[in-house]
């Protein structure tokens, strides 16, 4: 009995001490103070000769030993009351002692410091309380914001029902609540594939993308932070981001100079991350918006910003974008004006280097700019050097990339196929050595403009293919000599501007629906050598495509010469609508056994062009491809 009484005495001392602390704090809540606070309290209230009890307190409010707890309890109790309580304990019956023991146990449980998981659960339960005040709701989200920073706590968030609870707050009417909820999701998802997957599965990304367009800057900024954290290094999240038109949101932010500079920095920084992730996953298909010319121009234009930080982030994004397979050097040059933008930035950075306050930063940015310039130059050289001489006795050739109005093309000299015009403004020149009689391998050039192809004989056995600028697409329908479609973009009218997408008024679905209409019978022809088959002449496909899909774009992707003498052309047709664009590719092959073929490359291109159109539905029922 005496032993039990002594234990209860200790517990009673602790209970009395806690009650005394509650009265001192006057908060009505349990309060654990640190060792330093306890020492200061002793100095202010009851000076003691022995402060060893305080030293036994851990930094988090715990006790290193039972003796330390006893000393602390005695030191915080009134000696007179303690003696009276001790006498009262001795007079308690066994049943009373047991009841008192249970009370003390309950009190000790309350005094335990809660774990992070318990604190998270409390905050989550508060969020589930619909009657919770706005202030308390903010406090719960702020507590979660701190608690989910450790990765282990973030991984527990979904187990506790926290992800669903926080996502619900994204729909709250209060802007600060939505901002905090997005902040929590972004913090928990950052560099955490487990939480990224969980949040994406709960469907948070569409809501966050919508929030990025908010007129409240803080809400938009935190939402973009959350989006970045969700899709960074997450291919599945990036694909969903594209489905939700997230790239258009980034484009709008980067293009609008009136938007808060912090949001624009985050947008272009995210783009740079996405492009870098694509480079690290070369086996994956690149997202289509990476090669969208309007999107790319919005990035290039940021290099003219007055904000150096924004310029630096834009350069980093461009460095990654230029290294992607699907981005075209000529688009960067002709449509985006990257060469001029880089030169203007170089001049501005030179001026900043004179200023001692900006010199170091300007040197760093110039280093990145120079790296972008080198990557851009190499990408342009690849376009130029992919043309290889064939036929005749030429051992070398000179090739020049020239510009006439909006048209860019390649010019070569010697006994070879030549793309030329009246302009003499040489922009690029190389002179590679080519073996005599070598086959022309791969030609890939992107033309910005509009035109039709013709051919004329030149001296020395060479041939020249000429592109003539026209205001409409057409040509000699009966002539089989000309290259039918080649690389060009069909203009809408003289006022058309690629920077003004409103010129294309019809949505993509309507255009595709019209392209699937049945072809008039009088257009369909039958080849003399095979009466059982039918086909659409390329010039009819050209005109119908221009009628139904004004502003379409044609591009030669590859010209491949095989050892058996056959020629294969890979051709891409891109159709643009007011809400997006789509492309289709196909191939056309001409063999040496084909009769009446004057130009095998042109003939193969005709086949590839018409087949690419059929993949949009234009006379698809007439073509059967394995």
Automatic annotation (TrEMBL):
InterPro entries cross-referenced by the UniProt entry: ARM-like, ARM-type_fold, Armadillo, Hsp70_NEF-Inhibitors, Nucleotide_exch_fac_Fes1
Molecular function per GO: adenyl-nucleotide exchange factor activity
Source taxon at top rank: Eukaryota
UniProt keyword annotation of Signal present: yes
Span list, region Disordered: 34-54
Occurrences of domain Nucleotide exchange factor Fes1 (ranges): 66-157
Record key words, sorted: Repeat, Signal
SUPFAM superfamilies in alphabetical order: ARM repeat
Cellular component GO terms held in the UniProt record: endoplasmic reticulum
PANTHER family for the chain: ARM REPEAT SUPERFAMILY PROTEIN, PROTEIN FOLDING REGULATOR
Protein name, entry field: Hsp70 nucleotide exchange factor FES1
Species of provenance: Pyrus ussuriensis x Pyrus communis
């Amino acid at each position: 009995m005496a032993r039990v009484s002594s234990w209860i005495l200790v517990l009673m001392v602790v209970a009395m001490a806690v009650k005394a602390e509650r009265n001192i704090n006057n908060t009505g809540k349990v309060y654990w103070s640190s060792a330093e606070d306890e020492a200061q309290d002793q100095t202010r209230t009851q000076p003691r000769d022995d402060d060893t009890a305080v030293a036994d307190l851990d930094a988090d409010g715990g006790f290193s030993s039972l003796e330390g707890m006893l000393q602390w309890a005695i030191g915080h109790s009134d000696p007179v009351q303690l003696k009276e309580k001790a006498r009262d304990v001795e007079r308690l019956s066994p049943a009373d002692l047991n009841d008192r023991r249970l009370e003390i146990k309950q009190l000790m449980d309350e005094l335990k410091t809660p774990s992070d998981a318990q604190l998270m659960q409390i905050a989550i339960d508060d969020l589930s309380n619909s009657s919770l005040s706005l202030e308390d709701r903010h406090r719960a989200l702020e507590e979660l914001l701190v608690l989910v920073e450790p990765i282990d706590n973030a991984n527990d968030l979904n187990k506790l029902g926290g992800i669903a609870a926080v996502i619900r707050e994204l729909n709250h009417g209060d802007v600060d609540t939505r901002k905090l909820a997005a902040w929590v999701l972004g913090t928990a998802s950052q560099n955490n594939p487990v939480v990224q997957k969980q949040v994406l599965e709960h469907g948070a990304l569409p809501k966050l993308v919508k929030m990025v367009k908010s007129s409240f800057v803080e809400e938009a900024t935190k939402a973009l932070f959350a989006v970045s954290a969700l899709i960074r290094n997450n291919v599945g999240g990036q694909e969903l981001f594209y489905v939700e038109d997230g790239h258009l949101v980034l484009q709008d932010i980067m293009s609008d100079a009136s938007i808060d500079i912090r949001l624009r920095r985050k947008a272009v920084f995210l783009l740079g991350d996405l492009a870098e992730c694509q480079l690290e996953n070369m086996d994956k298909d690149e997202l289509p918006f990476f090669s969208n010319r309007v999107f790319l121009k919005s990035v290039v234009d940021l290099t003219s910003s007055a904000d150096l930080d924004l310029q630096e982030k834009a350069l980093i994004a461009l460095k990654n974008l230029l290294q992607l397979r699907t981005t075209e050097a000529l688009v960067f040059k002709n449509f985006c004006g990257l060469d001029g933008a880089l030169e203007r930035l170089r001049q501005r950075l030179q001026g900043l280097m004179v200023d001692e306050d900006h010199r170091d930063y300007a040197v760093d940015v110039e280093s990145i700019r120079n790296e972008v310039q080198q990557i851009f130059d190499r990408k342009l050289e690849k376009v130029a050097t992919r043309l290889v001489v064939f036929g005749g006795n030429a051992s070398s050739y000179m090739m020049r990339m020239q510009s006439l109005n909006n048209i860019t093309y390649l010019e070569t000299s010697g006994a070879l196929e030549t793309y030329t015009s009246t302009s003499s403004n040489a922009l690029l020149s190389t002179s590679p050595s080519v073996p005599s009689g070598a086959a022309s391998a791969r030609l890939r050039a992107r033309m910005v403009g509009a035109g039709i192809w013709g051919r004329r004989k030149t001296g020395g056995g060479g041939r020249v293919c000429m592109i003539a600028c026209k205001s409409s697409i057409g040509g000699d329908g009966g002539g089989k000599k000309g290259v039918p479609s080649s690389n060009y973009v069909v203009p809408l009218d003289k006022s058309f501007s690629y920077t003004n997408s409103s010129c294309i008024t019809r949505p993509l679905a309507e255009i595709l629906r019209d392209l699937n209409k049945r072809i008039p019978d009088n257009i369909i022809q039958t080849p003399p050598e095979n009466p059982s088959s039918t086909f659409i002449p390329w010039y009819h496909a050209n005109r119908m495509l221009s009628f139904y899909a004004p502003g379409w774009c044609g591009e030669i992707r590859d010209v491949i010469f095989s050892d058996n003498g056959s020629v294969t052309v890979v051709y891409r047709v891109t159709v643009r609508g007011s809400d997006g664009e789509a492309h289709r590719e196909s191939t056309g092959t001409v063999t040496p056994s084909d009769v009446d073929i004057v130009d095998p490359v042109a003939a193969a291109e005709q086949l590839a062009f018409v087949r690419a159109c059929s993949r949009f539905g234009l006379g698809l029922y007439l073509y059967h491809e394995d």
